[in-house]
C-alpha cells in the first residue's frame, strides 16, 4: 500500500464519527453570488452532492449581488445601495424600484437554472455520477416591504415575514436539496428583493438547523495577522463585532460574524465561515477536528470537565501510547472504571484530548497522576489547562499538598511550581507501592 493510500485510509477512518454525527442533520449553506461566479464553484457543487449522499439534509441559499450589479450596469440603471442597520445586523440594502426588480428577477431566474443544471450532472467520469440529486424550490420565504427608513423609500426591497419551515422540512424528508434565493413573496402576490444573508440566517433559525455554513472570500474570520481564527464562542464573536463597529466600516467579516451570532443565539448550534476559493474547504471543515475556517458556536468548542464512565474508551486511547513508551503505568479497563471518579478530561469535538487524575491520600495530600495529552495537541497548552483544572479541584477539596511521580516530565512540573522530593516523603500507602525499577522522580507542591 502506498503512502498516499495509507493517508487516505487513515483520513477516511477518522472521518467516520463525523459521518455518523451529521446523518439526517439539517445544514443551511449560504452561497453568495461571488461564490457561484468563482471558478471553484463546480468543486463546491461536488462537495455539496457528497454531503447529500452521506444523508445530510441541505438547504442552499444563493445570493446574486455581483450578477445583479452587472445586469443593472448593462441596463444603465444606477445601483443605489445603502448601509442600513436592521436590529443588530448591518446590511447593505439595494433600493429596488420596479425597473430594477425586472432585471433582478431575470438574473435570479437564470442563476437558479444554472445551479440546477450543475447539480444535474451525472457523467460517468464526474464525481456526481449516480448521485441523482433533486433540487426543489418554491414560495417558502414570505416577505414584507422594508418601507421608508430615514426618509428613504426602499420600494420593492423587503424583509422576511416568515419562513415556511414545515414545507421545507417535508422536502428534506424526501432527500431533496432545497434551493432558496434572495427573493421573497407576499400574500398580495408581490415579489421583494431580500438579502441572501438574511434569508440564510432566518431559514437556519426557523429550521433549528444544526449548522449554518457561510461561504466567504476569506478562509474564515481573520485575526490582525491575517490568519483565520479557528473558533469563537458566540460571546467572543459579539465582542469582535463591537470592536469592528467601533473601528468604523462594514466589511464581509463583520456581516458574517453578525449572521453567525444571530443564528447561534437563536437556535442554531454552530455557524462556520469558510472560503469559496479553497478547494474542498467544506469537507476539511466538517470532517477534520481542526477544520480550515472559523467556527462560531453556542458553547465552548472545548470542555474541561469531570470524567464519566462513557469516557473510558477515549481515556484508554489517549494513555495507551504513553503506556507503551513507559511514561505511564498500565491501567486496565477494569481499573479505570473503578477510578473514573478521580479523573477529569478535556473534550474537543467529541474526542478526549487530555486527561488527569487526582487521588486523595492522608494528611490533606493528593497524587496528581495519569496526566496525558493527545500527541496532536501537545503544543497547545492543554496540559496546562488540565493541570490548572485539577489544581483548583484539589484546593476545593481542601488538599494542601500535591505530589507526582514522573519518569519523563520532571522539568514540566518544576515549571508549574513543584519542587523535588523523595520517596520517604510519600504517604505510607503510596510509599509501600513505589516501583524502584521505574525509578520515578518524586515532586511535590504546596497549595
Short characterization:
By secondary structure, the chain is an alpha/beta fold. Helices cover 38% and strands 26% of the residues. The protein has two domains: 3-300, Acetylglutamate kinase-like (Carbamate kinase, 3-Layer(aba) Sandwich), CATH 3.40.1160.10; 303-446, Aminopeptidase (3-Layer(aba) Sandwich).
Structure description:
- Its main location: cytoplasm.
- It comes from SAR86 cluster bacterium.
- Belongs to the acetyltransferase family. ArgA subfamily.
- Keywords: Acyltransferase, Amino-acid biosynthesis, Arginine biosynthesis, Cytoplasm, Transferase.
- This protein is 38% helix and 26% strand.
- Helix 4 packs across helix 5, helix 7 runs parallel beside helix 9 and helix 8 runs antiparallel to helix 9.
- It is α/β, with parallel strands linked by helices and 447 residues long.
- The chain is elongated, with a radius of gyration of 27 Å.
- An eight-stranded mixed β-sheet has the order 5-10-2-1-13-15-16-14, sandwiched between helices.
- It folds into two domains: 298 residues, Carbamate kinase (3-Layer(aba) Sandwich); 144 residues, 3-Layer(aba) Sandwich (Aminopeptidase), CATH 3.40.630.
Low-confidence stretches: none
Mean pLDDT: 88
Tell me the span between the first and last alpha carbons.
54 Å
Sheet with most strands: 8 strands, mixed
Strand order of the largest sheet: 5-10-2-1-13-15-16-14
Number of domains: 2
Radius of gyration: 27 Å
Overall 3D shape: elongated
Strand content: 25-35%
What's the CATH superfamily of the largest domain, by name? Acetylglutamate kinase-like
CATH class of the largest domain equals Alpha Beta
Under the CATH scheme, the architecture of the largest domain is: 3-Layer(aba) Sandwich
Briefly note the CATH topology name of the largest domain.
Carbamate kinase
EC number: 2.3.1.1
Family: Belongs to the acetyltransferase family. ArgA subfamily.
Catalytic activity: L-glutamate + acetyl-CoA = N-acetyl-L-glutamate + CoA + H(+)
Keywords: Acyltransferase, Amino-acid biosynthesis, Arginine biosynthesis, Cytoplasm, Transferase
